[in-house]
Amino acid sequence: MSATATAAKTLERLRALRQSANNNADPMRCVSDAPSFGHAHLTTGQSSYADRRVQNAPHEHFASTAVPQHHHQLIDWLSRSHLQRRLLLSSPDADAPKIALLGQPIAAGLHLIEMRHPLAEIPTELRFQHREQAIDPRHLLAIDTETTGLAGGTGTRAFLVGIAFIEQNELCLRQWLLSGLSGEVAMLQAFGQYLCAQHHLLSYNGKSYDLPLLRTRFCLHRLPDPSRELPHTDLLHLVRRRYRGLWADCRLQTVERQLLSIVRNDDLPGSEAPAAFRRWLQRADATQLNRVVEHNAQDLVSLMRLALRLGDIDPDQYRLHAPRSAESPVMG
Length: 332
Prior knowledge:
Nucleotidyltransferase, domain 5, 7 strands, disordered C terminus, Ribonuclease H-like domain-containing protein
């Protein structure tokens, strides 16, 4: 059969399909923008092939026979439908149950997670490096954030802000977690309102990363930033002075192994936190994001334990002082 005859036969078939579509609506149509024709038993490949044969055939044989407009709509619709089905079926989470987000909602787009851990022994005073004034451990406020990117800058925001503090004989953790980007202002306000003049901030690389990032977000939203007025000890600087050259690195997990006898199992690396948050926003699946919350909580616990531990390492540099009074203020 010649190319001309094949193309002519294909056109007849397309016209028949169009007539059939006009007579019988297709109950299988499932895409809202599908054109007004019925279910065609012509695959995308066959349609594209027929279209190419029509275009490549001699023009004089088709001067009076134009390709129906619905033919092009059919090809476009089938292509989109096929792509949608492929994306749905290829997704490993298409039928997987969604995991709920940890914590309780306290504002639009914001969750709060709270935990408490008992402490066997709490020193009365700490002195970090050469500070003349000793620090009451109950005034320490450890802070750690998880962010949407690792480079910082105005385009990066914290989606999780965690703090740890000592209350009576317990280590208390409080984490503010964004469940939506609209909750950022509420998160910054909640964190800022918790800070008070007696707090002494504690972090690990917080002077270079966490606090500057939060201050940028406070500034962008035109909110007051109480952290600017508070004293701040970055334990990374102390650890580097003491152990640089002795350990392979001074990452927090290295410090945990060397000083605190902590080895994390199945811990989600902090570098994967941005992807976990994007996954939550796109799929409403908190499987990985909840692991980020656990990672952040472990960082906070380790920060406080490290601060309490440093008093016993080098008495000449990190001195632990006797109590000055019978009563010590307790953070509320």
